[in-house]
Structures are given as C-alpha cells and as structure tokens.
Amino acid sequence: MIIKxxxxxxxxxxxxxxxxxxxxxxxxxxxWTFVKFYxxxxxVWCGHFRGSPNCVEVSLTYQTVIVLTSxxxxxxxxxxxxxxxxxxxxxxxxxxxAPDESLIIADYMNVEKFTNNIKQKTLIESPxxxxxxxxKKWNENKLEFTCQEFVYWxxxxxxxxxxxxxxxxxxxxxx
Length: 175
Known about the structure:
175 residues, four-stranded mixed sheet, four-stranded antiparallel sheet, 16 strands
C-alpha cells in the first residue's frame, strides 16, 4: 500500500522502478511531473504524469493518492496502485489534505471538498466571490488562504476554511 508520495525531479533511469501514466489528449503539455511513491513494504517507485508539477497528497483513511499537475487531476488507489479516476485539471491550482484526511481543492474562484472520489466534489460556499485563490497553511482545524474579491481585484483577503464546520470566513482584508 502507498503510504507516502512526493514530487521529485526526473529520476535517473534505473534508480527505481518507473511507471508512465500517459493519457491521450490533444491538450497535453510537453511537461512531466515525477512522483516518488513509498509503499508500506519498503518498495519505492516513480510515476510519470503529464503536466507541470503542482501537488501530491496521500489519504491513508480513504486509501487514495491524488496527483495534481497542470494537465490532470489523477486519483490512484493506494492498494492496487491503479488509476481510479482522472479529469482535466487546467483550472485547478491548489490541493491540500485536511486533518480528517478529506481533500480540499481550489481553482481560481472556488474551493471544493471531496473524500474518496474526485468526481464527487462539494462546493464550499464563500461570503464573497473569490478570485486568485492560494492556499497557505493549516492552523489546527483551519486552512488559511488568500484571494482577491472577484471584479474588485484591489481587495485582497486572508480567508479561513474550517473543515469541521465546512465554512469559509473572512479573516481580514489585506489591502
């Protein structure tokens, strides 16, 4: 079972077992993301995914690995190491694992939550229309992130998302 994953630079050929995950699309970029996977039996292997690197998260609770590149959002079963779901991810910019191991993802304007299937996301309502969302850090049960108010781009906010209450709140106006 995959227990850890990290984005790495392109490995030297033969350093570890490698697997190429290629998906035919006229929209594929020329870039690749390399992810080093660690299994609970000590085996280490590398997956190659289309698109520039963004983020990888492992949820032990849901036994799933999520790889976010500039081209795709990919969900891999931690036990079988096979792809469960895949979708184009041109819009997604941020991905993080909540303390309860649910996954929080954002595009430019929306924050969504999912657990065991990337196709079953739930939109999290915000008190303002957001743009240019950027996740910062978890502070206990709250995710801090910045954004601009849509159409009012001079207004930059520090926001929080509380995974327990499933609420987004304005923490403060930055400028």
